[in-house]
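Budget justification aside, the reviewers requested a transparent look at the raw inputs and outputs of the sequence design task funded under Objective 1. We therefore reproduce one unedited record. The lines immediately below are the C-alpha cells for a 282-residue chain.
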C-alpha cells in the first residue's frame, strides 16, 4: 500500500484527541503541494457528498476500505482503479479548518492507523521531514545536540519541513552554531575526564583557608602590639599560624601550577557561553 499523496506532510495523526474534538481523530490528515490524491492500492471506487466530510471518495480493496474526505473534485468516480492512479484533488469541502485530505483506513470494518500500513521506502526514495509531532521531537532533539538549542515549532515548520532528511541534517550541521557547539562538547568531555570541577573546588577551599589564617596572624600580631606582651603561648600561636599560612600558600602554588591550563580553559568556556547568550539575545 502506498500513501495517497506524494511528498506529503502530516498535519494530524490517527487517534489525536484535541480539546475541540468530540472524539479521537479517526484518520490521518495530510497535505501536499499539488493536492493530487492517488489510489493507495487496486480496488473499486465510489463517491458521495456528505455534510461534514464534503466531497468523499471510497476505495474498496478486499477487506480494506479507504475513505477520503474534503475533496475539491474527483478524477474518478466509479469503476476499478489501479494503485497510484489519480482519483481526486483534495480541498476544503465539508466541515474543515483548512484545505487538507482526511484519510480513513478500515480493515474488516475497524478503523486503523494508515501509517502502519504504508509501504516503507525502497532506499531510492528520499525520506521527507514532516510537520508532525514525532518529526519535530526528533529533529528538535538533534538540533539541540548539534547547535545547542531547540527550535520553536514555527521555526521547524518554516525551515526544516518538506525537505529531505539528509538536507535537514546538512542545514543543521553546516550552521556556525554547530561548530561552536562541537567545541563546547569537546571541552565538556575534557573537563569531565580531567575533573576540572574537583580541582576548582579544591583551589577555592585552599584560598579560603589562606584568607582565614592571614586574619588569625593579623589578630595575633595586633594582640602582641596592644598588650606589649610577648608571652610564649602567643608567640607559639603566631609561629604556628604563620607556618600554616606558608603551607597553605604552597598548596595553592602547586594547585595553580597543576591547573594553569584548566583555569585558562575555564575562562574560555565562560567567554564562549557569554558569546552564545549574546547571540541568542540578539
Amino acid at each position: 500500500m502506498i500513501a495517497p499523496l506524494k511528498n506529503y506532510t502530516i498535519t494530524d495523526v490517527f487517534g489525536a484527541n484535541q480539546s475541540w474534538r468530540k472524539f479521537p481523530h479517526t484518520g490521518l490528515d495530510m497535505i501536499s503541494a499539488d493536492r493530487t490524491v492517488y489510489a493507495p492500492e487496486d480496488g473499486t471506487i465510489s463517491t458521495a457528498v456528505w455534510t461534514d466530510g464534503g466531497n468523499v471518495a471510497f476505495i474498496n480493496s478486499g477487506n480494506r476500505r479507504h475513505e477520503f474526505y474534503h475533496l475539491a473534485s474527483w478524477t474518478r468516480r466509479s469503476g476499478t482503479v489501479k494503485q497510484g492512479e489519480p482519483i481526486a484533488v483534495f480541498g476544503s469541502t465539508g466541515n474543515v479548518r483548512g484545505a487538507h485530505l482526511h484519510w480513513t483506513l478500515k480493515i474488516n470494518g475497524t478503523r486503523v492507523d494508515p501509517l502502519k500500513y504504508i509501504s516503507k521506502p525502497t532506499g531510492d526514495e528520499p525520506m521527507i521531514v514532516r510537520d508532525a509531532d514525532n518529526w519535530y521531537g526528533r529533529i528538535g532533539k538533534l538540533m539541540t545536540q548539534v547547535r545547542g538549542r531547540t527550535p520553536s515549532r514555527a521555526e521547524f515548520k518554516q525551515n526544516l519541513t518538506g525537505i529531505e532528511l539528509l538536507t535537514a541534517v546538512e542545514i543543521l550541521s553546516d550552521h556556525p552554531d554547530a561548530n561552536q557547539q562541537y567545541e563546547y562538547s569537546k571541552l565538556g568531555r575534557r573537563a569531565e575526564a580531567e575533573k576540572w570541577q574537583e580541582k576548582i573546588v579544591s583551589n577555592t577551599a585552599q584560598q579560603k583557608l589562606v584568607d582565614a589564617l592571614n586574619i588569625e596572624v593579623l589578630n595575633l600580631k595586633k594582640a602582641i602590639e596592644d598588650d606589649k606582651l610577648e608571652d610564649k603561648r602567643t608567640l607559639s600561636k603566631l609561629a604556628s599560624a604563620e607556618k600554616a599560612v606558608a603551607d597553605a600558600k604552597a598548596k595553592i602554588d602547586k594547585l595553580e601550577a597543576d591547573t594553569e591550563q584548566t583555569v585558562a580553559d575555564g575562562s574560555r568556556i565562560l567567554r564562549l557561553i557569554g558569546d552564545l547568550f549574546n547571540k541568542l539575545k540578539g
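The domain at 9-117 is CATH 2.70.70.10 (Glucose Permease (Domain IIA)). The mean pLDDT is 77. Computational costs for records of this kind are itemized in the attached budget.
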